[in-house]
Amino acid sequence: MGVAYLKSEPDIRYKVALKATDSEGKSIYLPTNFGKNPDILQSENRFYAYLPNSILAEGEIKIEAFLLRNSLWHKNSARKENFKNILFKSSQNFRVAFIGGINEEKGGTTICDIIENGPADVDWYVFGGIGEERLYKLRRKNLVKTGFYHSEDLHTFLTYHQIDAVCLLSKCPETFSYTLSETLRSHLPVIVTNIGALGQRIATTQYGKLVSPKDETAKEVLQCIEQWKSKGVAYQYAKVAATEYVYDTLEEMLTQYSELYTLMINKACKAEEDFKTSVSDLNRLSLAHDLGLGLGENDARFAVRISELEHRLKIIDNSITYRIVLKLTSMNIPFKKQLKSILVGRKRGTTK
User: Fold this and answer.
1) For the segment 282-329, what is each residue's pLDDT rounded down to a tens digit?
2) CA 350 to chain centre
3) Exposed/middle/buried for 349, CB within 10 Å: 0-12, 13-18, 19+?
């Protein structure tokens, strides 16, 4: 752990990375973690790093710190740290990671149960902040807790520490889970609770294993890990499935969201036009009927038409699409103003 800051801006915390060079001259650039630990360092600029035991050679290791500011990396050329006689604890254990901000809703107590009752030949990693007290205090020789990470570095952490599987054990339904996407981007099989988007995405892709989101979660996770830790057929099947995952780039996701919003807004406009037309027709027919213009042989036709329009209004008003659109228009959707200007421009023919 250490502290890194710019002399001109000592109170601002910037992202830090380390260049680690081993006794054989091999270098890696290692992302660092961050998080408060006031018992050790008071500065807001503190960082933490765990050297992976599967990449660097033992012996002397040289460390250089780099600080990112305005897309440029800064370093103190006169400052290098040399650590001698570094010995890595060799381990061929199966490695399981829990990632993301971990609290009770994200399965904090369940994770404690899994680690406390898990086999000794499994190494456990917690990547991310911990908001569950019992897990925060938990100590085990085969447990590593790194603290908060920058989301773009997760793939590197999973790779450097040679993680074999990831558990996402949320107790509450999620709408998508970018953490799951980041895991699958690393082509790692996952164990997830069968609830919300986690369950839906894995159920349709077979990238991992589904477990109950209720009382049996820890037991089911341990049963799965027991099957997987030998890396036999069951694990290889999930591993191969995970390698087939294709992730969307940020630009592709923006395009998809734009197309979705365009579709929904167009449906909203059509629904609104139908609604206004039906209201207008209903008002005219009702007025004509009240004035007696429809008396006689056409009176029944007026009554039927009014009934049809009232039924049509009811269908529109209660349709799922119309209600979703009304909800969307009342929400603070990201890029809502920009999307509206794009759509208006398209409608008027001012954009390409």
Assistant:
1) 666 665 555 554 444 455 666 666 666 666 666 666 665 555 555 555
2) 36
3) exposed
DSSP characters over 121-168 = TEEEEEEB-B--HHHHH---TTEEEEEB--GGGHHHHHHHTT--EEEE
Distance CA 18, CA 295 (A): 88
Based on DSSP, count helices (H) and strands (E) in the chain, helices before strands.
Answer: 11, 13
- In sequence order, the β-bridge partners of residue 69 are 72
Q: How far apart are CA 95 and CA 157, in angstroms?
A: 13
Please state the rounded mean pLDDT for residues 135-163. Answer: 91
Q: What is the phi/psi pair of residue 191, to 5°?
A: -115, 120
| Token reading at 196 | 């919300």
Q: Measured between alpha carbons, how far is 46 from 32 in angstroms, rounded to an integer?
A: 10
Structure tokens at 182: 């980041």
H/E element holding 312? helix 299-318
Residues in the chain: 352
Please state, in angstroms and rounded to a whole number, the distance separating the CA atoms of residues 313 and 279.
8
Report d(CA 118, CA 298) in Å as an integer: 81
Measured distance CA(213)–CA(206) in Å, rounded: 18
Instruction: State the chain's maximal CA–CA distance in angstroms.
Output: 106
Neighbours of 145 (CB within 10 A): 22
Give the tens place of pLDDT for each residue, 234-282.
899 888 888 887 766 667 777 877 888 888 777 777 766 766 666 666 6
State CA 210 to chain mean position distance.
18
User: Judging by beta carbons within 10 Å of its beta carbon (0-12, 13-18, 19+), is residue 89 exposed, middle or buried?
Assistant: exposed
Distance CA(246)–CA(248), nearest Å, equals 7
